[in-house]
Amino acid sequence: MSAAKKTLNVAMIGQGFMGRAHSNAFHQVGHFFDTPFDLRRKVICGRNRETLDAMAARWGWDETATEWQAVVERKDIDVVDIATPNNLHAPVALAAAKAGKILLCEKPLAMSVAEAEQMAAAARKVPNLVWFNYRRVPAIALAKRIMDEGRLGQVYHYRAVYLQSWGPEREGVWRFNKSVAGSGAMGDLLSHSVDLALMLNGPISELSAMLRTFAPPPRDVDDAALMLARFANGSIGSFEATRYAVGRRNYNQFEIHGSKGMLRFNLEDLNRLEFFDSNDKQEILGPHQVLVTGPGHPYVDRYWPPGHIIGYEHTFISTLADFLDALAKNQPFHANFDDATQVQRVLEAVEHSAADGRWEKLEKGARAAD
Amino acid sequence: MSAAKKTLNVAMIGQGFMGRAHSNAFHQVGHFFDTPFDLRRKVICGRNRETLDAMAARWGWDETATEWQAVVERKDIDVVDIATPNNLHAPVALAAAKAGKILLCEKPLAMSVAEAEQMAAAARKVPNLVWFNYRRVPAIALAKRIMDEGRLGQVYHYRAVYLQSWGPEREGVWRFNKSVAGSGAMGDLLSHSVDLALMLNGPISELSAMLRTFAPPPRDVDDAALMLARFANGSIGSFEATRYAVGRRNYNQFEIHGSKGMLRFNLEDLNRLEFFDSNDKQEILGPHQVLVTGPGHPYVDRYWPPGHIIGYEHTFISTLADFLDALAKNQPFHANFDDATQVQRVLEAVEHSAADGRWEKLEKGARAAD
Amino acid sequence: MSAAKKTLNVAMIGQGFMGRAHSNAFHQVGHFFDTPFDLRRKVICGRNRETLDAMAARWGWDETATEWQAVVERKDIDVVDIATPNNLHAPVALAAAKAGKILLCEKPLAMSVAEAEQMAAAARKVPNLVWFNYRRVPAIALAKRIMDEGRLGQVYHYRAVYLQSWGPEREGVWRFNKSVAGSGAMGDLLSHSVDLALMLNGPISELSAMLRTFAPPPRDVDDAALMLARFANGSIGSFEATRYAVGRRNYNQFEIHGSKGMLRFNLEDLNRLEFFDSNDKQEILGPHQVLVTGPGHPYVDRYWPPGHIIGYEHTFISTLADFLDALAKNQPFHANFDDATQVQRVLEAVEHSAADGRWEKLEKGARAAD
Amino acid sequence: MSAAKKTLNVAMIGQGFMGRAHSNAFHQVGHFFDTPFDLRRKVICGRNRETLDAMAARWGWDETATEWQAVVERKDIDVVDIATPNNLHAPVALAAAKAGKILLCEKPLAMSVAEAEQMAAAARKVPNLVWFNYRRVPAIALAKRIMDEGRLGQVYHYRAVYLQSWGPEREGVWRFNKSVAGSGAMGDLLSHSVDLALMLNGPISELSAMLRTFAPPPRDVDDAALMLARFANGSIGSFEATRYAVGRRNYNQFEIHGSKGMLRFNLEDLNRLEFFDSNDKQEILGPHQVLVTGPGHPYVDRYWPPGHIIGYEHTFISTLADFLDALAKNQPFHANFDDATQVQRVLEAVEHSAADGRWEKLEKGARAAD
């Protein structure tokens, strides 16, 4: 924490739920991590002037703006953070990339693979991040470590569900509008499950899927997405994402069976990982219920002592800390725009398969960068 | 329990794991239920003479026999119980039906739909039962009651997994041999999940499926079966059955989301049902963890006081008790050969879909009798 | 299972809940275990002639009788099983011991330490058992094995609760009447917890306790018993037994912390043991959730394949199997009358401490025979 | 959030674990709550100059100081926050109260009841708070609401454990030194359990306790504290606090049984409350597993949408928000110095009872202000 730390000026485009989560991360990252940069919350940009002023005041943004086009070209801006509805991701990202800005973008990256590829191409010239924040849940980072060390052996099964139940209070939100959101549960929830699957278990080579809208018109996005998959590593998978899982709030679960063990995680129990280790003595074989709050666990030593729970917002903080660290060291960071494009390819294959009722091959494969 | 109770003489064909489970049920049913008939364990029939004698002695069978053909035609036999490998179900059932015997048969009923239909046609002349024993798990019977009362509202999602992990000690069993077993995880495990789904949620109208054998040849049965489904009631489903779920022993789970609530059950936790009731006051909304051991719960008042756990074997006892009761009252019993034929239709559609990579329509529908 | 197996004729005194549980065990033990003796259900003895006849018919007792005094002296009786209300344990046991019968007795053994000591002295001349059936829960037998192997290290804490909630349907039962039951939750529930504690963790040297009756007079037994304890091995303990734990049915739990690990068990989840092993690698440290259904687990290989749940009644069957095995081998069996007398000493100390508000020393110690 | 909000200048004395937790709360409270005051982190005061500078830089304190005496008398300071080792609470609080400062103090409040009473007397002249932060866990605030509405009926049992396991890495910390900490597990952990019990269930009238030090000298504080209690409302309680619960990290649990229901909470599962409601229909009776993340739940609407988990640190933020709100409205706030004095009376009774082996009456009662 020397005085010589460079300051990065941030412009955030968007002021909704994600705008709050990002604002909090910009605030908190330096409190818990030894960041190589200082972040200055320079401009927040949004359409609703009234809420924008209140949000800027509350979260300490120096300035407000209503036109993103001007903001992303400002010379004094180093970082452009995109927290808008999905249909604005591409225009903002492309303009910001052209202006040479560091790019942070919410998921799903784009409205289509074509759009995602264009964005990824542009982003290759600048440091970039996609907010697949669940990669930095400590329990998930631990799961990745266990997978990478080969402690699950040959993987047989990958199973993921992302279960939410949206009440009537959500009526009218942009996420129900296809022209703005691109898709429903698929882009919002399945994208998270797919990103984690690609990270943990590698590329998907083939899939069969179904999309379903339970709500009456004019609702035009999917409420649920189901998919069967074959992975390049020989394992098979089952995925389900829905906003109609009455009884569940934010039940983002995966379960993986390999020849040597099992892993299970559920976001409603964010601080735990279940790990079955077939190397345990036979009579005490059983899933370990690991409270992933240290010692020896990813990220958590930056926060509170062992046993002291962290929450949803910390996943954004840890993501940002890793990004800044990679930025300072000029190292690759994941998930980036290329990673998110792989997710987009899977989502597009889901749409194709759902439309024509056939298995869909992912010819390029959906490779997870590592 | 008057002295005038009629005695039914039972012949059991088979002496394996299921032979033990059935023998126990024949013994125990009268201890816990007020049965309208006495059951006499008259003949046990099997090929291995040595184990057969030991088994007869241990479980109190009066006689042993090695040729089922003669046994099923004996005048003094009232009930033929089929606990053989799958490929013998049809010949034994057809012969016994022809001889007018009451028929009890293990699942899966048959090697094919054609065979099942032939058996079901023959069985319509006699009282008959298929041992889909999990219908009588108290928690599942309670789930059915809740569904039948409409307390889940419109169903959106049905999700089932049946997860086992078979160790090397099982090598060589007949269940791995296609000519004897017909299929692997599909007939053994998925059949249970499908039977419960048809009972609880009604017919499946369309499905897309995948079968997978992880083991090397000469293994020729599926080790895993995955399936997506559309139900006639408008809900959608996801199914998975596998013998390669390291970390799970007998994890037969279903989870159902409707507009008014959620149900969840898992066989490794046989005495519990999870029920989310959206009618609860908002601040205490959450799945009820119901210990289904009474009072007010199906079957359990026949066994022990509330809070005293029952086990796997009791599902056979309660099934038999219900069957005898229906027999005395000349009422329909389920699951019978017709019900099991519906399951067989789904399994055959799974095979077709897995082979040709397309959604498979169930034209007649797989209707669950009620 | 040779034809030369000796038959033991059993007389059971009592026909209530425990009479059913024992009858079932006498039936089932030979089905699941290779017993060195055959058991014949010779006489069942009770006061209520009507229920007695029904019970004898249902459970296959050859004869009925209403006067236990004559029964226990019959030459053709080998085993006297006492399943009466508590105040009859002593007279029946003393008479049966005098007649040289093998003695099986329900818990709590006696109405007082003096009575227990007299019974234990008489019983030393004959094979004897007290039905502390929970010792043979597979998960508890596994816990004992882990303790005996020293895998918990130095024990620091022992914590037990036995939580039930008795509804109005139980009003009027003999268990609420002090002159018949001796005590309430203390003798009925705390006795189980104390027996397990002595078995697992050794003698208690000192205790402070509280008894409480929530119900109005004429209820004269305790509804709840609480106790703090010092064990001879240096660990400290906390115990609670109650019939007023609304929300719990049969929640018999213990939790033990030692320098090397933790064990936790709860009877409402009878087939599971939780074991924390501090030797696990740090990052996967967490309680193992062991589904104690084999392989390698006590008793369960006698019942069903791994993953197939057993229930409450099996604890009686396994207890009886072990007793018959010890009897044939002329080896000591536990829990016997001496073990149960140690439990009685603890209960009496609880009463003294509750009465005078002081810590009570157990001068002889409450030694668990092993 | 008008521009006219008054700013309160804060001086924090202390820079350890609690100093971080408080710094975070001062930062975050205005981000999530509409606070009536702005808080300025004016001075942080500590002995270790090196860590102090780093901490001030990281958490944005304007100034540092090493002598608390001068700081607490500064005219420009409005709030003194005490996050020192326990033996400094009294001198700092008394000096700050004398200087008319708003007082915030860590728990346990004092080294003795006498000290606590002196502090409470002084604090009555100024707004004051004690950081019993767990009162603002949303699940616990919901539990209090349920209790206050009488939805548990007559309370029978209160049961609390606070289980931690401290590894060798903690050797040498001030919390092991009696002259600095006052006590061990008792003041550190049991104090939390007692505060919650007094808040939820009212005064304790009598107790019997045991203290135990497992570690060898020179360790001179208790490692474990056990206690039985009688509450003024007629219920009875059991408490245990320990740093030797291998297998548990921060297992702060309470369980309450009343005539109409049960409540259970555990801090390792901070976002959940278990509630058994005996008014539920009999067949679906079972503990509700409530994910206390809204809607309708205390505090959580200030943070993230339903289903998005919060953590340990949020309890401090919500505590501070409530305090500032009460301050602006000139309303009483709890827990304050008087509440903490009641906790201190219980702890002192624990010490007396542990020393003389008798039940200890709390003559004044340990009344929880409401």
Give an overview in words.
Four copies of one chain form a homotetramer. By secondary structure, chain A is α/β, with parallel strands linked by helices. Chain A is built from ten helices and 15 strands. Chain A has helices at 17-32, 49-59, 68-71, 89-98, 113-123, 138-148, 178-181, 185-201, 313-329, 337-356, and strands at residues 6-13, 37-45, 63-65, 79-82, 102-105, 128-130, 155-163, 204-212, 224-231, 236-242, 251-258, 261-266, 272-277, 288-291, 360-361. In chain A, strands 14-13-12-11-7-10-9-8-15 form a nine-stranded mixed β-sheet. A six-stranded parallel β-sheet of chain A has the order 3-2-1-4-5-6, with helices on both faces. The longest helix of chain A has 20 residues, at 337-356. The model of chain A has no long low-confidence stretch (mean pLDDT 95). Chain C binds chain D through residues 156-157, 159, 161, 163, 165, 208-210, 212, 214, 224, 226-228, 230, 236, 238, 240, 242, 244-248, 257-262, 276, 278, 287, 357-359, and chain D through 156-157, 159, 161, 163, 165, 208-210, 212, 214, 224, 226-228, 230, 236, 238, 240, 242, 244-248, 257-262, 276, 278, 287, 357-359.
Question: Which labels suit this protein?
Answer:
homotetramer, alpha/beta, 9-stranded mixed β-sheet, 10 helices
Write the layout of secondary structure elements.
The structure is a homotetramer of 370-residue chains.
Chain A: E1 6-13, H1 17-32, E2 37-45, H2 49-59, E3 63-65, H3 68-71, E4 79-82, H4 89-98, E5 102-105, H5 113-123, E6 128-130, H6 138-148, E7 155-163, H7 178-181, H8 185-201, E8 204-212, E9 224-231, E10 236-242, E11 251-258, E12 261-266, E13 272-277, E14 288-291, H9 313-329, H10 337-356, E15 360-361
